[in-house]
């Protein structure tokens, strides 16, 4: 099958102080996130002048893909902020695109990391009459180029730390119920946390570390609802109590150094470690690393040439969908939101 374009589908982020609140409202609409939490997160964004780095990082990563000779036009659209995915799809249609591949900027399965991007595709196709067909590329958490980019970043960050530092992987926390519902029911759930654990294991093995931890960051939602734990900041404190002489944080759950990375890790976790006198380093995410650009090109080539997936884990290959239809029945079903009484 042939395609006339690639849609780069991401999360989106505000571009100035006045964008922050409407952006946060887009992200959390109908999700029961308490206003106190929104005020807190708004302050994180305003700390950086109301500008998230995420849009610029996506544009730079797209440039890196073009720079290695990728020959399809690349369009850029987001779930939560401009350029919105609906607009990107309308532009694609106007440019004569009939069928496009979609690269979602998340490596993992689960509702927020995978299925919600299918919902974005569905929403955009509903908004655009006679929309182009959209085929989403598969999950890539165990692709050798993804693992390799992180392994090099860990090696680079380690040069600033004492030799017995602890390697700690982080990913975005999600509600425990969402993780239980991640993947098709036949797989027994937990696809998100299992894939995060597997990618962490692969990176740790690549750098020759047999001791490492997997923890979570950026918890949202009402406090009474359980989310994946421990949190990275609490974990910094536990490691300090254990007498660990340094910490290297690798944000394996993300593909770019966006705001949740620069705030929750480079500010909050870093500051806590510094207060405790613990050396702290953070590995870079793939961003515009040429290997990440190559990964995108390979995923497209693999799909268009029907090649076997290049992957390092025995986990099933998943996440490839057409026009926003889930990749398997009941896969990563959206959680039932708490109803107000
Ligand atoms: C699994 C996952 C990823 C990784 C997969 C992927 O990358 O797609 C991710 C990425 C991101 N999350 C981001 C930002 C936010 N996430 C929020 C809220 C939430 N995230 C969730 C999960 C995830 N999120 C969940 C379950 C919620 C609760 C609300 C809901 O059920 O949906 C909120 C609301 C405020 C708050 O934090 O409470 C914000 C502002 C940014 C952009 C940062 C920037 O601007 O640079 C990025 C890349
Ligand atoms: Fe998030």
UniProtKB/TrEMBL annotation:
The keyword Iron applies. Its EC number is 4.99.1.9. It catalyses: Fe-coproporphyrin III + 2 H(+) = coproporphyrin III + Fe(2+). InterPro entries: Ferrochelatase, Ferrochelatase_C, Ferrochelatase_N. Keywords: Cytoplasm, Heme biosynthesis, Iron, Lyase, Metal-binding, Porphyrin biosynthesis. It is found in: Cytoplasm. Fe(2+) binds at residues 172, 260. The keyword rRNA processing does not apply. Gene3D superfamilies: 3.40.50.1400. SUPFAM superfamilies: Chelatase (SSF53800). Fe-coproporphyrin III binds at residues 52, 117. GO terms for biological process: heme biosynthetic process. Pathway: Porphyrin-containing compound metabolism; protoheme biosynthesis. It comes from the Bacteria. One of its GO terms (cellular component) is cytoplasm. Its main location: cytoplasm. GO terms for molecular function: ferrochelatase activity; metal ion binding. Belongs to the ferrochelatase family. Involved in coproporphyrin-dependent heme b biosynthesis. Catalyzes the insertion of ferrous iron into coproporphyrin III to form Fe-coproporphyrin III. This is Coproporphyrin III ferrochelatase. It comes from Umezawaea tangerina.
């Amino acid at each position: 099958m042939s395609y006339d374009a690639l849609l780069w589908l991401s999360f989106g982020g505000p571009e100035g102080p006045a964008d922050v609140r409407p952006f946060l409202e887009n992200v959390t609409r109908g999700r029961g996130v308490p206003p106190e939490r929104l005020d807190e997160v708004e302050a994180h964004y305003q700390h950086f002048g109301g500008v998230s780095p995420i849009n610029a990082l996506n544009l730079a990563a797209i440039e890196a893909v073009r720079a290695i000779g990728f020959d399809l036009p690349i369009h850029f659209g987001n779930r939560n902020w401009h350029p919105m995915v609906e607009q990107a799809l309308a532009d694609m249609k106007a440019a004569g695109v009939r069928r496009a591949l979609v690269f979602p900027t998340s490596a993992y399965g689960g509702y927020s990391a995978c299925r919600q991007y299918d919902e974005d595709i569905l929403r955009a196709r509903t908004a655009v009459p006679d929309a182009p067909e959209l085929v989403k590329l598969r999950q890539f958490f165990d692709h050798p180029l993804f693992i390799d980019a992180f392994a090099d970043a860990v090696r680079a960050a380690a040069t600033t730390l004492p030799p017995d530092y602890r390697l700690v992987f982080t990913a975005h926390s999600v509600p425990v119920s969402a993780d239980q519902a991640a993947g098709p029911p036949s797989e027994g759930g937990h696809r998100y946390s299992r894939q995060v654990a597997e990618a962490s294991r692969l990176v740790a093995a690549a750098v020759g570390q047999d001791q490492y931890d997997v923890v979570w960051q950026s918890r949202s939602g009402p406090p009474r609802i359980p989310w994946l734990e421990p949190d990275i900041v609490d974990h910094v404190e536990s490691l300090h109590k254990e007498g660990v002489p340094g910490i290297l944080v690798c944000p394996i759950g993300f593909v770019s150094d966006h705001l949740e990375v620069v705030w929750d890790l480079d500010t909050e976790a870093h500051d806590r470690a510094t207060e405790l006198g613990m050396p702290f380093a953070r590995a870079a995410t793939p961003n515009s690393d040429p290997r990440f650009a190559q990964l995108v090109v390979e995923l497209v080539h693999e799909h268009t040439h029907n090649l076997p997936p290049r992957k390092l884990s025995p986990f099933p290959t998943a996440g490839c969908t057409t026009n926003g239809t889930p990749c398997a029945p009941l896969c990563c079903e959206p959680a039932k939101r708490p109803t107000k009484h």
